[in-house]
Amino acid sequence: MDPVLQKVDEAIILIALRRQRRRQEEERSRRRHRYWVHPMVSHRVSTGYFHNLYSELRIYPNKFSNFTRMSVARFDDLLERLRPRLTRMDTAMRNSISPEERLLVTLRYLATGQSYATLHHYFLLGVTTVSRVVKETCVAIWEELHNVVMPEPTEEIWESVVDTFWEKTQFPNCIGALDGKHIRVRKPPHSGSSYYNYKKYFSVVLLALSDANLKFLLVDVGAYGSQGDARIFRESTFGRRIHAGQLNIPESRPLPCTEEPSLPLVMVADEAFGLAENLMRPYSRYGLNRQQKVYNYRLSRARRVVECAFGVCTAKWRVLLTSIHLDVENAIKVVLACCVLHNYLRDNDNSNVEPEPSQQSQRVQFMDLRSTARVMSIRNQFAAFFESPEGEVSWQNDFV
Questions:
Q1: How far apart are alpha carbons 143 and 169 in whole angstroms?
Q2: Cα–chain-centroid distance for residue 87?
Q3: pLDDT, tens only, 90-148
Q4: Quick one: which H or E segment has residue 148?
Q5: In this structure, are residues 210 and 217 in contact, taking their beta carbons and an 8 Å threshold?
Q6: Strand order in the sheet with 203-210
């Protein structure tokens, strides 16, 4: 081999080895923590949000409510429910984060949707610490509250819901209003189009059944983006339970002020859902007669409560209006925590936020199942009831 070429090869190999060694040293330098505790974080007790604002916020209830989205009394009650799960042990190296601060950080994240980096600068906690605190607290909120404020519906609960719907919306035999929303999430790594929906962004789907008091009776959060809208509801846990008759729905009964026929208790939904025995949707929009128009109007009045429930929930917990930059599992925990907090405050707080239209959480389109003659007959009987003396209300004539 030519000595000159041999020397050139050796020089190239030497340069490559030096570059590789330099990259390894840079990688080790990046991995090496510069501080055991960052100087900013070490001043948390003297300059952090919690230690400077928490006590003062409690003096001014309006400011406290604006910061946490709940009253002082509700915060204290929630804190006592969660305290055993949020308490950590102090060590010789550092003091633990108090349950009060853990809850305040989490509520601020849910209320604003601010990034962990932003909360790090406000509360002077490490970004990783903020992430862990929010995840653990959201899990605690869901597990401690959902059996209290969103229990599994029983026949007694369904009966109460039916009475409230008839009183407030004049829709009979109604056990809830059903709808779904896309909640934006960050694209999961190596997921392809698994979470990509027809709106051209990545999302998980929140399905919810609401009562006439804007409380969620049932919620289901899942990722169905790549399956197509026609299969979302059918393949959700929620949808399977509805069509399998696993929700303890009471037996059919006559409509108010009538003796026959007996009609099933139903959920109301928009035209994106398929018509089923326990699920009523509007007639198609074209070529309607008066009776069908009245039915669509009455159903719309009952169905809008779930839209209002979504509006109230997202107005308080604005993380649902942002793109949640967490992995899907943690994003689902955040959404579930928001839902049970919504119910918790509907039960206990007098200050209710008015619903706002949401541009970020888009409505979901579902399957359009072929309806049987029996199911269509049930819908026709509801429509006939709204035109009868027993079911007619004075204001529906102003609509038609």
A1: 32
A2: 26
A3: 777 777 889 999 999 999 999 999 999 999 888 888 888 999 999 999 999 999 999 99
A4: helix 127-149
A5: yes
A6: 216-222, 203-210, 174-184, 266-268, 279-280
Task: Report helix, strand or coil for 175.
Answer: strand
Pairing of strands 266-268, 262-263: unpaired
Q: Tens digits of per-residue pLDDT, 204-244?
A: 889 999 999 999 999 999 876 555 444 677 777 877 887 77
Per-residue pLDDT at 369: 45
* Category of 170 on φ-ψ map: left (φ > 0), alpha (ψ -120 to 50) or beta: left
Please report which helix (H) or strand (E) contains residue 218, including its range. Answer: strand 216-222
Query: Cis before residue 261, ω within 30 degrees of 0?
Result: yes
Structure tokens at 31: 């991995």
* Residues 259/351, Cβ–Cβ less than 8 Å: no
Q: Is 165 helix (H, G, I), strand (E, B) or coil?
A: helix
* pLDDT tens readout for residues 33-42: 565 566 566 6
Distance CA 230, CA 233 (A): 7
